[in-house]
Design goal:
This protein folds into 2 domains: 115 residues; 227 residues, 3-Layer(aba) Sandwich (Rossmann fold). The protein contains 14 helices and 8 strands. Strands 1-2-4-3-5-6-7-8 form an 8-stranded mixed β-sheet, sandwiched between helices. Helix 11 links the parallel strand 5 and strand 6. Helix 2 runs antiparallel to helix 3, helix 3 packs antiparallel against helix 4 and helix 10 packs across helix 11.
Amino acid sequence: MEEEYPARVAQLGGATLVALSALEVAERRLHPPEFPELRRALSLSRERLERALEAFRAAQPDDAALRDFHEHFAAGATLTLEALARFVDPGPPHEAAMRILGALGSHRRAQAVLYPLREVLPAIGRWFLEAPLREADSARSRAISESAPRRDFEVGHFEAPAAQADRGGFSLYVPEWWDGASPWPLVVALHGGSGHGREFLWTWLREARSRGFVLLSPTSLGPTWSLDAPGVDAARLASMVDFVAARWPIDRTRVLLTGLSDGATFTLLAGLLEGAPYAALAPVSGVLHPMSFGLGNLGRAAGRRIYQVHGALDWLFPVALARLARDELQRAGAALVYREIEDLSHTYPREENAAILEWFDPALRLP
């Protein structure tokens, strides 16, 4: 069995990474008419991962030093399998949407469990890099792969005082290869309705690790952002930026606020308030909230750099609403980039991260 163990590790690693990637593809194509096809495609990954996980569990090592690794790796693979099962098994019709949202949550929790294993499983380390760096022999890729874990932490979670139901805090990623000597940009990424910063962090971590910026992923105090009382969460976001900048050298002229769905709507709402600490805004699949007019946000939009992304297939916020927002922002004089993606539904287009970052700061291009 000891001789077979490395092969079982490799088998499970390959099946897990294929499944994680397949789930990313499914999330990008998350349009209701495509659900049956997505389920069929993910079924193949599920079957492969089930077999690999069963074989891995049967290969429990005798070496006590390996047992912690064994349990940790199995836990990450189990969460990945849970994500596949939630997606593939539709359950009763009224549960289908919630099961898919649950699958996405399990997918991100699996990444959180697997990320620490990148030091002992190089394939996992490569998966948490952008594709151009995975096989590249560059100074950047070597610096990342050879960097030791940070003493101050890499992924941290901060809870709000007297928070209810684990809400109101934030999650933070500080790339392990940063020496902390020179100021880096900060990206503040807002989850959608009913989301959580602890999970949305993984929508941006690969880019932060590959390109070099600090990533802040807050959690709304309520089930979603305080859209009807924007000052509540806006003040909290600004204080989080201050907290991070007081502890790590952040370039305050390079702070990007971005978000998905309600997070995108709140990006435009909070990001245009008087004194907001953001150099640029990048809302994805959101709308221009009516309160923006009464708060004078459009008057402050002149010259503001905004990168707006929306899907032509969006079923929650029809694309006509995004075009109205585009027209109002252009009329207000915003320095607007508008990206309408033909095959995008109401979901996150991970491939836009690179374009957003390079628009925001050309220094964030991959070497």
